[in-house]
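Support case: nicotinamide-adenine-dinucleotide complex. Customer-provided input:
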Amino acid sequence: MKQVVVMTGAGGGLGSTFAKEFAKKGKQVAVLDFNLEAAEKTVEEIRKAGGTAIAVKCNVTDKASLEKARETVRKELGKCNVLINCAGIQDPLAKTTKEAYCKDDEKETVVAKPKDGTKEAYDEILAKDRTLFNIDAERLLKVMNVNWLGTVMTCQVFAVDMVGTEGNSIINITSMAAYDALTMVPAYASSKAAVDMFTRWLSNYLSNEYGKVRVNAVAPGYFLTPLNHDMYVNSDGTYTQRYYNVIHRTPMGRLGDTKELVGALLFFAEPEMSGYITGQVIAVDGGFLSCPGI
Ligand SMILES: NC(=O)c1ccc[n+]([C@@H]2O[C@H](COP(=O)([O-])OP(=O)(O)OC[C@H]3O[C@@H](n4cnc5c(N)ncnc54)[C@H](O)[C@@H]3O)[C@@H](O)[C@H]2O)c1
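Agent response - structure generated as follows:
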């Protein structure tokens, strides 16, 4: 029987590649995304290539939306066998503008928060310095909510259809930021460290003789997508200093190609290949985590 694979964030840079590659392997893919247009584009490409996929609008921070998505998946494809939690965000306003404390940073205590919902107000704040002292708590929480709580809630909802059947598995997407305290992204790094811990916690909880669901994670290194483009590419198309810092610490000397993540995902998804593996993370990073860069 063809596996039913549910992927969140599957209209995005990484997720759309995962969905297309899984469909090529004969999986039935439910492409879940907050951005329905992006999800539909992925599905259109899959169908053109002869694969099976459906697009489902879904917000991973809203349980009712997730439950509605599960109903659609059940009706159109059947119960979920593999869940890949790929929805995630970076929020420019949840990042600091400096890598480390500068003298008198603490004197700027006005919270870096847009006055209203307009683009002008947003851009005005974006152009200002954000430090530990004035970063907006709501923006930090938003990143935690999508990246961590969104992963937890998606598992809550889809594991209902997965428990008790041999061969099912959950795959979370973490990051290099789960291991290394990457500068400027305090909320993102904390959220991914939380996803890493939740992966192990959930494997303890779900992988027993009753649950039977394996839970693992893939930690991507650096792949250019809409999520991180502004951190690595300047507006004039040249690379940023941060890009060169990453490359310097990557023994393979280049960014990854999104297709290079698919093997690790398929490995965890296939019980024939990884049936006795749970609670593990595979880093797909060109060697970044093994290299101190000096
Ligand atoms: N690109 C990289 O180098 C990299 C590295 C490490 C980890 N990651 C992780 O991989 C995952 C995918 O990242 P990406 O680079 O493809 O980013 P992306 O921005 O291209 O795609 C993310 C997708 O998630 C969707 N999304 C956002 N909030 C959502 C919500 N509340 N509900 C449902 N969908 C939502 C977006 O609409 C988007 O399609 C993220 O978890 C990210 O943290 C990416």
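Residues 137-158 form the longest helix (22 residues).

Case will auto-close in a few days if no follow-up is received.
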